[in-house]
Structure formats: structure tokens, C-alpha cells
Amino acid sequence: MTLLFEYETEYTFPFDMEAAAKEVIAEALRQEGVDDACEISLTFTDDAGIMELNASFRDIHKPTDVLSFPMIDYDGRYAGEYEFLEQDKNPDTGDVLLGDIVLSLERVAAQASEYGHSPKREFAFLIAHSMLHLFGYDHMSDDERELMEEKQERILSALSITR
Question: Which in 48, 84, 124, 162 has the greatest CB count within 10 A?
């Protein structure tokens, strides 16, 4: 697994964000049954940075907590059911290019406080949530939302990251 980290903010937490992200991503890959080496880009930003992206890509002019940019079209399937093609891979490394995660650390802190749990739990939750989007999951219908919620909770529970 190759994780590429970019920092667009000075905001930080009292835990190792890179180690926490790696742990959640590794568990998400394991649970989804993705055995291929993967590459994921993670950008840590603030509300202003994510608001700019949210406006550009979704025409929503307000900050959000996390944005996911999957690189693979699974044709109605999910990553665990999909055989990765050469076009899905980084030609230099052979790693599957799953996509990009952009996380507002300001939103992480605000939502952790609002929901009454630790910033690490909120951070891990949003990474798990975003990984599921990179795997082809969405939450546009109740059934999809319930499936994502179940998978998110399973990932966090396996890592003993609770509310």
C-alpha cells in the first residue's frame, strides 16, 4: 500500500494522523478483500480549502468534512468483486490507483465535539467512509446508506475505535 500525504493546513491532532489513516485504510482493504497493492492520496486541509473543492466539483458553496475522488469505475460492482485492469494501475509501480481523499481537519474537530467522541474516532470514521466511496459504495438510497454504515462500523470495531 502506498499512501501519499499532502498537508494544506497547520491544523493537527494529538495522535499520529498518518499512522491512524494507514491503520484504517489497511483494515478497509482487508475487509473488502482487496489484496492488490494500492495507491491512495490523502490531503489534509481546512474548511476554506475543502469549500473551494466542494464548490468546484459539486457546486456546493460550503465546507464539508471529506471528499472522495475514486479513480476506478467498477461498473456497478464494488472493489472486492472487481478484477483490476492494467489501466487501473500506476504504470511505474503497478499499484492500483484507488483515488484521492481530501479531509477537512477543522470539520473533524468540530464534528467530534458535536457528536461527543474523540477527534481520532471522527478522523478514522471519515477515512473509512471515504475508502468505501473509493471502493464504489455510495449512500444515495436507504439500502446503500445502511450498507455503508454497517461496513464503516465493522472497520472501526475491528480496530477498537469506538465512540
Answer: 124
Residue 144 parent element (H or E): helix 142-158
> Whole-angstrom Cα distance, residue 34 to residue 30?
6
Task: Report, as ranges of residue numbers, the positions in the chain whose pLDDT lies below 70.
Answer: none
Q: What pTM did the predictor assign?
A: 0.94
Q: What are phi and psi of 29, to 5 degrees?
A: -60, -45
What distances in angstroms separate CA 61 from CA 45, 57, 64, 103, 149, one per listed residue?
16, 10, 9, 16, 26
133/68 Cα distance (integer angstroms): 6
Alpha carbon 132 to its chain's center: 7
- pLDDT value of position 80: 86
Q: Is-contact 127 67, C-beta < 8 A? A: no
What's residue 140's pLDDT?
A: 83
Contact by Cβ (8 Å): 128, 152: yes
The dihedral formed by the CA atoms of 30, 23, 125 and 77, expressed in degrees to the nearest 10: -30
